[in-house]
Amino acid sequence: MSDCHSSSTAEVIRTQDAKGHKIPVIALAGQPNMGKSTLFNLLTGLNQHVGNWPGKTVEQRSGNFSFNEREYHLVDLPGTYSLTANSPEEVITREFILTEKPDIVIAVVSAANLERSLYLVSELVCLPVPIVVALNMMDVARQEGIAVDAQELSQALNLPVIAITATKALGVRDLLQKAQEVIEHPTIVHPNVPEIRKDVADAIDLVEQKIAQYVPQDHPADWAALKLLEGDVEITKKLKASLPPEIEKSVSEILRENDDAMVAVASSRYNWIGDIVRRCVKKPKMGQISITERIDRIATHPVWGLFILAGILGLVFLADFYHWLTRSGLVG
Ligand SMILES: Nc1nc2c(ncn2[C@@H]2O[C@H](COP(=O)(O)OP(=O)(O)OP(=O)(O)O)[C@@H](O)[C@H]2O)c(=O)[nH]1
Ligand SMILES: [Mg+2]
Are residues 174 and 48 in the same domain? Predict the structure, then answer.
């Protein structure tokens, strides 16, 4: 990648350019093992800073790189399955997006496992941040016979989607080009978001109106209301501390009346994901089986599987026996 390189002097990661202008911040978000760090290392090379997130034992990695003669600050967010406050990683990721306001989030998903990886995206689309989706692991999907239509996915999400294979640096230039376009010409994009059951959506609106002036700084009121109805521990704690008693009482009443909201919200996300996957993913037809499935079938076959196991054990025994013979001097 000739026009995409990390600076050679690694020590200081700058967040301002020579004229004092803020260097645009790109955050990599995604579930664990989606390839965020692979992409991060590819772009930043040695120009990385590794430490811990303030007050947490979670590793923080950031670094700078240049692309098309512009410098960017890249943050490798911790892998998270969702954005509900179940773990420090989830809190770090959402707090970073809400309070640090990166210029763009690159949501890294796996083409080989789109259904699972879209759960985090279903939450990211509810945050006020521009998103570009990096559809990674295209090589793995191809090997598994899974075809993901990136253009169709882009239409289904109403977001830019670029297919990449991070380990081979394929598609990464296109991804950066798209990220650069979005950063330099920000337009208000409304991604398609999960549609929540009407009664729960109404309850969210009502809670939003009540809490709007008390939400923590940088937290959108509609998002905080959604999280309250999902029973998010952190947001509940923060709002409890700031809501006047009479408002807290009426909000608690709404939450009690909608005690199935968490399930309704989760199922709206799963429906959203299901619809998208049906539109964009073609799995191998019956009869067409992938290489790994073929290996699995033979290795777990009641007869051939035993032969393979006996063969492997025999080889281990022979290797061990040969090793013993050479050590005891019986074989030269
Ligand atoms: N075949 C293939 N493997 C990939 C690709 N991208 C990443 N990997 C591999 O997937 C594994 C996980 O990649 P990471 O970059 O560590 O994933 P991550 O998203 O940073 O994971 P966490 O830090 O746990 O959140 C590594 O073994 C990578 O080499 C890809 O496009 N193709
Ligand atoms: Mg990582």
Answer: yes
Which domain does 126 fall in, by range? Answer: 5-184
Distance from the alpha carbon of residue 41 to the mean position of ligand 1, in angstroms:
11
pTM of the model: 0.83
Give residues whose Cβ lies within 5 Å of ion ligand 2.
36-37
Retrieve residue 149's tokens.
């239509």
Residue 284: inside a domain: no
Question: Do residues 205 and 154 both lie within one domain?
Answer: no
Could you tell me the distance, in angstroms and rounded to a whole number, from the CA of residue 59 to the centre of ligand 2? Answer: 9
Confidence of residue 7 (pLDDT cuts 50, 70, 90): very low
H, E, C per residue of 244-309: CHHHHHHHHHHHHHCCCHHHHHHHHHHHHHHHHHHHHEECCCCCCCCHHHHHHHHHCCCCHHHHHH
Q: What is the pLDDT of residues 21-31, one digit of tens each?
A: 789 999 999 99
Is the separation of the CB atoms in 206 and 253 below 8 Å? no
Same domain? 46 vs 137: yes
